[in-house]
Amino acid sequence: MNTFADQLLVLVFLLNFMVLGTSRINIAIRVVAVQGVALGLIPSILHDFSWHLFLISAGMIAAKGVIIPTLLTKAVRSIGINREEEPYLGYVPTMLIGAVATALAFIFAEQLPLAPQHKELLFVPAAIATLLTGCLLLITRKKAISQVTGYLILENGIFIFGLLLADSMPVMVEAGALLDLLVGIFVMGIIINQISQEFSSIDTSRLTSLKE
Amino acid sequence: MEYMVNIPIHLLMIAIFPPLLLGVINRTKAFFAGRNGAPTLQPYHDIIRLWQKGSVFSPTTSVIFRAGPVLTIAAIVAAALMMPLGNHPAPISFNGDMILFAYLLGLARFFTIAAALDTGSSFEGMGGAREATFACLAEPALFFSLVVLARISRSISLTGMLNDFPPTIWFGSGAALLLMVGALFILLLAENCRIPFDDPNTHLELTMIHEVMVLDHSGPALAAILYGASLKLLLFGALFIHITVPFRSGSFLLDWCAFTGAMILLAIIVGVVESTMARLKLTRVPQLLIAACILSAFAMLLVMRQTS
Questions:
Q1: What are the residues of chain A with a beta carbon less than 8 Å away from any beta carbon of chain B?
Q2: Domain enclosing residue B262, as ranges
Q3: What ipTM describes this predicted complex?
Q4: Which of B:177-196 have CB within 8 Å of A?
Q5: How many domains in chain B?
Q6: Do B294 and A91 touch (CB under 8 A)?
Q7: Residue B298 with chain A: CB contacts under 8 Å
Q8: CA of B45: how far to CAs of B30, B73, B137, B228, in Å?
Q9: Is the pLDDT of residue B236 over 90?
Q10: What's the sign of the alpha-carbon dihedral A142, A145, A146, A151?
Q11: Gap from B27 CA to chain A (nearest CA, Å)
C-alpha cells in the first residue's frame, strides 16, 4: 500500500504549490482542507487497521477537513476580503522559491540518518517541504488570514513527520495537538475580526506602527 | 517489409494529416458555440487557395523576411522526421536526437520572430517579444519532461523513449507521469498558441502573439506558415499521445489507425478546452508556464529518486 500513500504525498506536494500560487484566500483555505483530508487518510492506509489509527484519521479529517475550513470561510465572509492583494513577494517568485525549497528538502532528506524502512518513502521530504512552504507563506503574505493558512500548512508538515511513528503515537497526543490547533485557529479568527474592526483591514503590515 | 511500409506512411502522415487537426478543432468550437461551422476540410482549401495566390513583399523587408517561412517549415519538417508516430520508429533516429528535435523547433521559432522583426512594424515586434519571452519559460518544461522520459526508458533518442512505451510504467511511477502529462498538456497549448495562452482566431486584439507575427506574410508563405503550425500541433500531440495512450496491438495497420483516432480525439479535447476557457490575462501566462516547469521538474525529481 506504500505506493498509494506515495501518490497521496505527491498530491500534498502539488497542493503546496497551489497555495503558493493562488491569490484567492477562499481557494487557499479549500486547498489546505483537501491537504488535511489527504493526510488524514494516510495513517489508515499505511498501517493495519486499528481503532487507535482510525481515531487519528477521523480526528484529522474532521478537524482539518471540516471544522477549521468552515471557521475560516466564515471569518473571510464576515471580513469581506477575498484576495491577498500585495504580498511582500509576488506569486511567481514565491512559487519558484517553493520549488527550490522542495528540491532542497529532497536533498536534505537523503542526508538524514533515517531508519532503512523509511529511506525509500516520500514522507521525510514531504514533511520538510510542507514545513518550508508553511514558513514561506507566513513570511511572505500580509493578510492575517493568509498567514493562518500558512500556519495550518506548517502543522500539516509536522503531522506528516509524525505519521512515521503513527503506530506508537498515543491518541491523546494527536488529539491534544489537534485541539491546540483548533483553539489556535479559533483565537486567530477572533483576533482577525478584532483587527478588521479596529483598522478596517486585516493587513498585518499596518500593525507595526503604534498609536495613542 | 514492415519497415518499408511504415516510412512512406510516416511521410504521408506528415504531409497530409496535420491540417485536419485544425479542422477538427474549429469544428468542435463551432459545435460548442451552436454554429454549423466551416467544413472539417476547410484548412486544406485554405492552404491550396493561398498556395495559388501571388505574394506581396513590402519594400522595407529584406531577404530574411522571404527566407523566414521557408526555413521555419524546413526546421519543423526535419523535426517531424525524428518524432516516432503511431508506435513505429521514426525515419531518422540517433542518440541525442531529442536535443536536436527541441532546438529545430527553437530554430523555427527564431526565424518566425526574425521575419516578424524584419518588417520593421512595431506591432509585429511586440508579438516577437512576447513569443520569445514565453518560449524561454516553456523550454525548461519540455526539457524536464524529456529527461523524465529518458530516465524511465534509459534511452536518449526520441524513438527509444516513446516507441513501445510500456503501459506498466503507469503502475510503477504513475504520479510522476501524471505530473509530466499535465505539464505536457500545458506545453501543447502554449507552444501551439491555443486558447488559454493565445487566440488563433483574432487579428485585431493587442493580446495576440503568434498571429501578429505573421500579419505581413501572404500567398504561399502564409500557406507554409499555416501548414507548419498544424504540423507542430501534430508533433506535440504525438509526444503527448505516446505517453497517455500506450496502446500496442501488434498489427502495424491497427496501430496507425489507433494513433490517428487518438490524435483526432486530442484535437477534440483541445477544442473543448478552447470553448470552455477564456484566454488568460497576459500577465498570468508566465505564471502558468512556470507552473508547468515546476510540475515537470518535480516529476523529474521523483523519477530520479525512484531509480537511483
A1: 6-7, 10, 13-14, 17, 21, 91-92, 95-96, 99, 102-103, 106
A2: 2-307
A3: 0.70
A4: 179
A5: 1
A6: no
A7: 13-14, 99, 102
A8: 18, 19, 35, 15
A9: yes
A10: positive
A11: 34
Q: What radius of gyration do chain B's Cα atoms show?
A: 19
pLDDT in tens, B100-116: 999 999 999 999 999 99
Torsion angle, alpha carbons of B207, B209, B211, B216, to 10: 100
Cross-chain residue pair B287–A106, CB shorter than 8 Å: no
Question: How many whole angstroms separate alpha carbon A208 and alpha carbon A142?
Answer: 12
Smallest Cα–Cα separation from B149: which of B183, B119, B121? Answer: B183
Contact in structure between A176 and A185 (CB atoms under 8 Å)? no
Which of A16, A106, A118 to probe the B interface (max B CBs under 10 A)?
Answer: A106
pLDDT along chain A (212 residues), means of 10: 77 89 87 91 78 82 88 82 78 89 89 78 89 92 84 88 73 73 78 73 70 64
pTM: 0.84
Which three three-digit cell numbers place residue A171? 491518541
pLDDT higher than 60, residue B45: yes
